[in-house]
Amino acid sequence: MRVSPPTSSGKSRWYGTILIVLAVVLALFWSVHPFFMWVLIGALTLVSFLYYRSLPKTERDYRYQREEEKGADPRTRTPDVETPAQAPKQKKRQNNPGASTAATPQQHVQAITIAVFVLVGVIFFGIILAVIFSPEDAEPPSETEVLQQTLAANPNDVDALTNLGNYHFDQVAYDSALSYYDRVLRIDSRNSPALYNKGLVYYKRQEYETSISVLRQCVDADPNNLDALVVLGHNYYDRQQYDPAQEWYGKAYEKGMRDSFLCHALAWMYDQKNQTTRALALYKEAVGLDSTRADIYPRLAELEPGRASLYRELEQRWKQPE
After folding, report:
1. CATH architecture of 143-318
2. Inter-residue contact 222 to 231 (CB < 8 Å)
3. What is the pTM for the complete model shown?
4. Which of 232, 300, 290, 219 has the alpha carbon at shortest distance from 258?
5. Sequence-ordered list of residues with C-beta below 8 angstroms from that of 286, at least 6 positions apart, any chain
6. Which of 110, 150, 229, 275 could bond to 160 as cystine, CB 3.0-4.6 Å?
7. Separation of CA 35 from chain center
8. φ, ψ for residue 84 (rounded to 5)?
9. d(CA 39, CA 20)
């Protein structure tokens, strides 16, 4: 009886090659855009199914396919007929069911196919689990949350308390800022940054005498806190008490503080006392630090008539439109 050869005898090898290529591409480009990853997985699953369908289903089909790939015409082959010599051997094997038998090539191919299907299934299942149970993209904790976590671990962390106080100061939440600065001072009563920040809060609230008292403590604890010296001067300058303001501004200037407002304020106060030489130098230093201070140039033109035209030109350049 003639048996027709399997119609898909030459396809399994091609499907197997494509399957291997897709698996390699998926492994290499695992981190690409999810869309392409799903396309690769879908293609891999489809080719795996086609590969399985194209495999020989019986030992005879396998022999047909092997002979066809070698170039022989399987239809001219004599059908398998059991010879008397083969029968006793088969019966002998049947009578010894415990004896080990070698796996056929078909069994190897089927094992590989099953392994590929299992691998694809595991990958697919893992992706589904990852999509379902992956946590939502959470925003990183804010700076204040990090600081609060630090305080939860160590309530006496001076840096965290100071930074939280500064945060509330920037938010113009002065009461909250003071509460954190006071916590620092309960830990270290001579903490210079906390004393300065507390004095600055009272200055912003125009509680000048309280600010002066706190800032004096700050200067006693740290004589080189130049910011505290300047704010002490501000407390007097804002109330037009120019002599003590000049004293504190002068101390900050002597210790190295350079600021266009500081130089301008000192120059104006020296100018009011007719100390024009000192005033002129400070005026020039102020515009050197900030050339946009147009209100200084008219006075410079009066103090240096020879350069008056230059100063008037600079005044016009930087003068803000009314």
Report:
1. Alpha Horseshoe (1.25)
2. no
3. 0.59
4. 290
5. 260, 261, 263, 264, 267, 293, 296
6. 150
7. 24
8. -60, -30
9. 16
Residue 208: what residue type? Answer: Y
Give 301's contacts (C-beta < 8 A, 6+ positions apart). 307, 308, 311, 312, 315
Which residues are CB-neighbours of 200 under 8 A, at least 6 positions away?
A: 169, 211, 231
The residue ranges of every structural domain in the chain are 1-76+106-135, 143-318
Q: Is 136 exposed, middle or buried (0-12, 13-18, 19+ CB in 10 A)?
A: exposed
Residue pLDDT, tens place only, 129-138? 565 555 555 5
11-28 vs 105-133: helix axis angle to the nearest 10? 30
Tell me how long the chain is: 322
In angstroms, the Cα distances linking 286 to 139, 140, 218, 256, 268 are 45, 44, 27, 14, 11
Contact (CB, 8 A) for 229 and 252: yes
> What is the rounded distance in angstroms from the CA atom of residue 181 to the CA atom of residue 127?
51
C-alpha 178/C-alpha 106 separation (Å) is: 83
Among residues 137, 152, 155, 2, which one has the least CA distance to residue 79?
A: 2
- What confidence tens digit (pLDDT) does each residue in 255-291 have? 999 999 999 999 999 999 999 999 999 999 999 999 9
